[in-house]
Amino acid sequence: MARLTVNNQPVQYRLEDDTPLLWALRDAANLTGTKYGCGTGECGACMVIVDGQAMPSCTLSLGEAEGRNVTTIEGLSGDRSHPVQQALVAEQAIQCGFCTPGIVMAAAALLTTNASPTDEDIARAITNICRCGVYPRLTRAIQRAARVMRGEETISAAPPPAIVAPGAG
């Protein structure tokens, strides 16, 4: 049984230690914002933040995650107000959206450790594959999020509306 912290909540998974963290998050915890892409850690769709570092959850086992602090896209910002999320929307750096959660997590981890990343820093840190090819807008969005986080700029755009279950709103 693996014990770890997910989105600031202590969690115990009754799964085999060699189970990929991705499947524990998606299947056991219903945190489906973390996507399955390649299964080899190359595409970045499954990126989560583990102890402050962006990591692909498809190659990290529950045993390796034992005792660690994991943040998923759901835990980053429940209302989509994180500067990276806001900047991606403002810069129109989202196309189909499949890769977006992984990119947001990689960018958030980068900006936590580097408040003023260069284009080269961004290219090294954001290795996520985006089939839609938003890379130039993505770089602008991350630079913009960095300015917001440094207090040099604000983004007036509201978060995208949440999906509301029928009869709930």
From TrEMBL:
<keyword id="KW-0411">Iron-sulfur</keyword>
<dbReference type="InterPro" id="IPR012675">
    <property type="entry name" value="Beta-grasp_dom_sf"/>
</dbReference>
<dbReference type="InterPro" id="IPR036884">
    <property type="entry name" value="2Fe-2S-bd_dom_sf"/>
</dbReference>
<dbReference type="GO" id="GO:0047121">
    <property type="term" value="F:isoquinoline 1-oxidoreductase activity"/>
</dbReference>
<keyword id="KW-0408">Iron</keyword>
<dbReference type="GO" id="GO:0051537">
    <property type="term" value="F:2 iron, 2 sulfur cluster binding"/>
</dbReference>
<dbReference type="GO" id="GO:0046872">
    <property type="term" value="F:metal ion binding"/>
</dbReference>
<keyword id="KW-0001">2Fe-2S</keyword>
<keyword id="KW-0560">Oxidoreductase</keyword>
<feature type="domain" description="2Fe-2S ferredoxin-type">
    <location>
        <begin position="1"/>
        <end position="76"/>
    </location>
</feature>
<dbReference type="InterPro" id="IPR036010">
    <property type="entry name" value="2Fe-2S_ferredoxin-like_sf"/>
</dbReference>
<dbReference type="InterPro" id="IPR001041">
    <property type="entry name" value="2Fe-2S_ferredoxin-type"/>
</dbReference>
<dbReference type="Pfam" id="PF00111">
    <property type="entry name" value="Fer2"/>
</dbReference>
<protein>
    <submittedName>
        <fullName>Isoquinoline 1-oxidoreductase alpha subunit</fullName>
        <ecNumber>1.3.99.16</ecNumber>
    </submittedName>
</protein>
<dbReference type="InterPro" id="IPR051452">
    <property type="entry name" value="Diverse_Oxidoreductases"/>
</dbReference>
<keyword id="KW-0479">Metal-binding</keyword>
<dbReference type="Pfam" id="PF01799">
    <property type="entry name" value="Fer2_2"/>
</dbReference>
<dbReference type="InterPro" id="IPR002888">
    <property type="entry name" value="2Fe-2S-bd"/>
</dbReference>
<dbReference type="InterPro" id="IPR006058">
    <property type="entry name" value="2Fe2S_fd_BS"/>
</dbReference>
